[in-house]
Each structure stands twice: as structure tokens, then as C-alpha cells.
């Protein structure tokens, strides 16, 4: 066999041994990122694909920070060569990708949008390298690999002292976290889709838990502490855990998840606090209307075993 033939055969063998690469587009805040991670992790576990993340969104928009690297998550940030290999003939995500998808039928298997991948609420097994674009907010995906995610979504570094003190206080007796999200939800475009949880919702949730858990203390977490004091009753068993403004929202998430019970807002942040909570006897309360927009379906995001009020 000639040298050239040996080189060709060797190269072909190496290509056969290369694992296909799964690149997941990461965007949004912590809650959104964790849903995107959950889908990528599930597919990687089922297929053995290399898991990579396109975090380029955070180079363009600075109102959110990339957070997956603050946890013990698996997978790496996608390199330029990995991006170009998966998205070829495009070099990176953008308008070229959308044009390729329009004109090349094969590209629909390479660049996959959320509305196509989650048809019939099933996650298909991918057999070749692909780029996934979406939010993937379906409760069944994280719950299908729950123990794996709970092991991995833990902090790489210890919390700051003030949060450790709060954690110690929470552990001193029966506790429930209440999440009040108003900040960015008060903006017009978010208000149309999500709406705001009312004072009546929080009072109903507190009454529900108080009837079932004696000696309960409620810990209120909010991005709008002044507004939180307007919608949550200020009583002896309520403690307002005001934000520390240090950019360590990932630590707040873990503190919230340590409470015995969770009252979520219509927010993926407190959704993940409830999911990460390992208390087998916990009560999780979620708003009856997750979305204000009637065209949005919340049956996929809220698990049926959570209490809706």
C-alpha cells in the first residue's frame, strides 16, 4: 500500500473515532442557562457526544452573565474551530446560519431550533454533530436526569460569609423560601408575557404552608426588596433576605434551594431553586398562571406534582 493510501486510511479511521459535537446556545439568566444545560447534558449522556456551549451572547449583551462555569457542570465553551466545524459553511452563529438553513436541506439536521426538537415532548437521539438553539423549558427534561443535575449544579467555590450566616439561620428551623420577582418583569415587553405575582398569591401560599408546617419561617428573596415588602405580609415569621448586590446570584439560588419548602414566582430562577431542593417532603407552590400571555402554554414548564395557587 502506498504512503498516500495509508495516510488517507489513517485519516478516515481518526474521523470515525471522533465523537460528534453537540453545541448548545446559552443565553439569558441563570434559570434559562440551566434549562439549556439540562437538555445538552441529557443528550450528551444518552449519545456520548462532546458537550460544548456557545456563550457568545454574553460578548454582545452585558445585562446578564454567563454562570455555568460557576457550578460543577460538565462540558466546555465551544472553540472557534468547533463552532466552524459544526456550523460549516458558517463560521459562527448568526445570519449566515439562518441563510444556510433556508437553502441547504441538510442544514436542518445541523442547526436545530427548539420548536422542532421538542415536537411531541420527546428528545430525539442525535447521531451527528449539531447546534441547538432554544430555551428548552420543559420540566420533563431536568427531572429525567435529576440526580445527575443535582450533583453537578453545586458551587465550585464556598459562599461569601454573609450568605453562610443566612444559610445557618435557615437551617435552624422549619423554613420556606418565597421568591418575588418584579425588576425586569415590570418592563413592558416582559409584563405582556409574564405578568406579576400578586399579594394574594403570596398570602395564599403562606396560609397553605402555615396550615401544614408548624413553626415555619418564611425567607423572602427578591430583586425588588421594596416591592417585596408591599406584597408579602411583614410579620414575625417573615425574614427579608435582601440582595447583596455583589453579582453572585448563583449563591442566592443555592441558599434559596436550601429552604425546606419553596414558593416560586413565575420565574425560572425559583423553578431551579425548587428543583435543586432535595427535601423529599417539600411543598413546592407555583402560580396558577405562569404566563400572562394566553398564547403561551405553561403545562410544559410546571411539573404536575407542584401545587398551583
TrEMBL record:
Molecular function terms from GO: galactoside 2-alpha-L-fucosyltransferase activity
Any GO CC annotation of this UniProt entry: membrane
The organism's place on the tree of life at top rank: Bacteria
Protein's UniProt name: Glycosyl transferase family 11
PANTHER family named in the record: GALACTOSIDE 2-L-FUCOSYLTRANSFERASE, L-FUCOSYLTRANSFERASE
Pfam families attached to this UniProt entry: Glyco_transf_11
The species this protein was found in: Pseudovibrio denitrificans
Keywords: Glycosyltransferase, Transferase
InterPro entries: Glyco_trans_11
One GO-annotated biological process of the protein: carbohydrate metabolic process
Amino acid at each position: 500500500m502506498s504512503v498516500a493510501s495509508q495516510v488517507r486510511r489513517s485519516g478516515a479511521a481518526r474521523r470515525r473515532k471522533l465523537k460528534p459535537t453537540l453545541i448548545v446556545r446559552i443565553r439569558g439568566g441563570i434559570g434559562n442557562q440551566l434549562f439549556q444545560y439540562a437538555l445538552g447534558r441529557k443528550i450528551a449522556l444518552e449519545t456520548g457526544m462532546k458537550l460544548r456551549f456557545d456563550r457568545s451572547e454574553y460578548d454582545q449583551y452585558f445585562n446578564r452573565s454567563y454562570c455555568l462555569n460557576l457550578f460543577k457542570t460538565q462540558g466546555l465553551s465551544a472553540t472557534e474551530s468547533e463552532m466552524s466545524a459544526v456550523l460549516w459553511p458558517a463560521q459562527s452563529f448568526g445570519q449566515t446560519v439562518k441563510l444556510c438553513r433556508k437553502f441547504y436541506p441538510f442544514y436542518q439536521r445541523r442547526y436545530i431550533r427548539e420548536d422542532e426538537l421538542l415536537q411531541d415532548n420527546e428528545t430525539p437521539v442525535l447521531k451527528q454533530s449539531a447546534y441547538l438553539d432554544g430555551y428548552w423549558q420543559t420540566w420533563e427534561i431536568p427531572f429525567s436526569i435529576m440526580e445527575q443535575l443535582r450533583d453537578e449544579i453545586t458551587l465550585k467555590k464556598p459562599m461569601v460569609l454573609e450568605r453562610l450566616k443566612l444559610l445557618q439561620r435557615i437551617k435552624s428551623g422549619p423554613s420556606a423560601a418565597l421568591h418575588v420577582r418584579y425588576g425586569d418583569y415590570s418592563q413592558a415587553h416582559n409584563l405582556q408575557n409574564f405578568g406579576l405575582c400578586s399579594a394574594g398569591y403570596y398570602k395564599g401560599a403562606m396560609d397553605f404552608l402555615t396550615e401544614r408546617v408548624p413553626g415555619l419561617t418564611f425567607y423572602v428573596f427578591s430583586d425588588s426588596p421594596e416591592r417585596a415588602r408591599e406584597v408579602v405580609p411583614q410579620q414575625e415569621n417573615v425574614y427579608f433576605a435582601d440582595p447583596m448586590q455583589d453579582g453572585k446570584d448563583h449563591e442566592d439560588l443555592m441558599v434559596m434551594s436550601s429552604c425546606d419548602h419553596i414558593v416560586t414566582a413565575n420565574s425560572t430562577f425559583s423553578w431551579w431553586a425548587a428543583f435543586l431542593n432535595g427535601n423529599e417532603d417539600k411543598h413546592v407552590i407555583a402560580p396558577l398562571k405562569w404566563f400572562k400571555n394566553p398564547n403561551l402554554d405553561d403545562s410544559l414548564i410546571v411539573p404536575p406534582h407542584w401545587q398551583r395557587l
